[in-house]
Amino acid sequence: MRRIARRSLAAHRLTRLACLIAGLATLPALAPAFAQQEPQRGGTLRIAQGSLRTADPHRHTGDSPVQQVYAEALTSISHDGSVKPMLAERVEVSPDGLAYTFHLRRGVRFHNGREMTSADVVANVERVRDRVQGGWLTTAMRGLRAVEAPDPHTVRFVLAEPFAPFTNLLSELWILAPETEGWATTINRPIGTGPFRFAEYRPNIRFVGEANRDYWQAGLPRLDAVEFDIRQVADRSLALRAGDIHVARIPDDAVETVRRDPNLRVTFYGDTEWCAVSFNNRSPRGPFADLRVRRAIAHAFDKEAFMQTVGNYVVGNQMAAPGSYHWDEAMERADPYRQPDLARTRALLAEAGVVPARTPLRIVSWQNDYSLFTAQTMRGLGFNVEHIALDDIGMQTRLTRYDWDLTPVCSGPRADIYLRFVRLMSEGPRPQMWGGIQDARLDQLISQAVTTVDDAARRRRYLEAWQHVMDSHQVLVLGHRRSPIGVRAEVRDFQPGFTVSPHRVDGGVAYTWLAR
């Protein structure tokens, strides 16, 4: 492998990321037959992008794409990652960062025909804060001192202390009609405000949304319906090429084949997934609680080779992608694991008194190439590896048993850096992917970051928190990737957003139409 000089490392990775972004932004021209057509109405968009673990939007723990076509929030994450008003027309923030006043759009109606008011927003916030355990935003909402509805079109939030990502996080607090059945327990047929009504849901098979003809954005949606295939299928590219699906997440090794098809194009989410190997931090087994052993394992990983199995990648050592605001060049330069060092691995294992051939090591993972690479790397060190590769539901469930040693994961785009950090907190959502960290000092550092109003100071605190993670060897980051989406040529005005949401205030499936 070609080695990169230390002084040029950051520049090399920034250049690589810039080339990656430029390459992803380059899309083939539309077929001439479609080029001048006006948007057409009707048709069903068949899409295989994202999952729907629960029909109850308040109970999701990170898998939120599909529900965003029927439920909307006060704010929305734009295609460029900025936050914009959605069900709110505008927001005012007090100078001390403690009070947020949202002015609601008038004429927004729930799918049952009733107009949305500020009292509905308050009811949704209180449900997330008081009734939902382990939800994506439950911890954040507990920082509220008060949520008030001074008039039918105004909502005022009062925070106990500043919380910098508040408006970004509200993009994932979806507003439903409180009269929705199951409000006090679990909702199965939500009544939202989105461009598509909740019509049919068959868990792990499909979701169908029918057009909301009373949608508050005039002239939208253009489609009659959207149908999400939510089965767990490894490769959607054949169905895409056959025309069985219009839009699909495709595997990285299918990108070039899809690009060569004149009836297809490839596009990407705006944000990256970050890829890492997590240690079992909740209940480490045998020698794997020993920092020397964790360092030894980190030295054994070839980051470049690991990320090649992922595709569309850039190597890194932080949860923020190289070149982004929360990334730090000095921290990147100081990475002791940027190149594999098997001699150092062997020395550390010997120092810890670990004989790999006598040491069982259990890996729980998804069924993918980078998980196989992880298992092979550990076998190469001589460990007695047991590799349990499962589908997504099985993997997530098995991780909660904390009877494993390593798990390789890639985690998708988020509305704010906090939504990556929160999963490392002691009471964060779905902590098992990061080894169930319970670290009071890390909790304190992350809490200090989110309560810091000044952007530069908040960035420094986040970096301090990430340095703590690296020093503790709780999670080893290997790099970042962008997820490819295949789109058929007849699909128009569809572009993935910054996050995995298929719907946002300035784009997505509400704007999409099918050329015929």
Automatic annotation (TrEMBL):
<dbReference type="InterPro" id="IPR030678">
    <property type="entry name" value="Peptide/Ni-bd"/>
</dbReference>
<dbReference type="Pfam" id="PF00496">
    <property type="entry name" value="SBP_bac_5"/>
</dbReference>
<dbReference type="InterPro" id="IPR000914">
    <property type="entry name" value="SBP_5_dom"/>
</dbReference>
<comment type="similarity">
    <text>Belongs to the bacterial solute-binding protein 5 family.</text>
</comment>
<dbReference type="InterPro" id="IPR039424">
    <property type="entry name" value="SBP_5"/>
</dbReference>
<feature type="domain" description="Solute-binding protein family 5">
    <location>
        <begin position="83"/>
        <end position="358"/>
    </location>
</feature>
<keyword id="KW-0732">Signal</keyword>
<feature type="signal peptide">
    <location>
        <begin position="1"/>
        <end position="35"/>
    </location>
</feature>
<protein>
    <submittedName>
        <fullName>ABC transporter substrate-binding protein</fullName>
    </submittedName>
</protein>
